[in-house]
Amino acid sequence: MDAKIKKKYLCPAFILCIMKKIILLTFTLLAMLQLSAQQNIYDDKADAMQQINTAVKKAAAENKYVLCQVGGNWCPWCLRFAAFAESDTLVHDIIQENFVYIHVNWSRENKNPEAMKYLGNPARFGFPVFVILDASGKPIHIQNSAYLEEGKGYSEAKVSEFLKAWTPSVVNTLR
Q1: What share of the chain is helix, strand, coil (3-state, %, to 5)?
Q2: Closest CA to 68 of 168, 9, 141
Q3: pTM for the whole structure
Q4: For 126-143, how does the pLDDT look when each residue is reduced to its tens digit (9 = 90+)?
């Protein structure tokens, strides 16, 4: 081996640099694996009609409505909304107090056609899309999520306004 090349590749600074890159790459891969494991919020094998019926029964018993988030684990905006709904205190509280919140899968492997028909073909708006069911299970609103976005995420003001407009107390006052 040429003396210059040997000196360059066996120098402690070069070895340290390579080791730092390997450690950084390892941590990046571990973080990506952990993130992907946490991102499976949709059950792509679930019978969506059964999921909806269970949620409606629970909502009726608790005097709530059902908030269906239709999408899939393949959809970055679906995963963003689920994380937002969990981390934003105002939105989380509105959902907890007024809705039974479910994730209804739509994917190439399982399009849940019976549920999509029942929900009023919400996929026409893109994903995620939100469908609100009253306590009897009747779809009363379909919300295109694009109107709730802000930058690369969701707007607390827009989402909370949407949710507050479709709570049981507000809707029932108008009936």
Answers
A1: 60, 15, 25
A2: 141
A3: 0.79
A4: 999 999 999 999 999 999
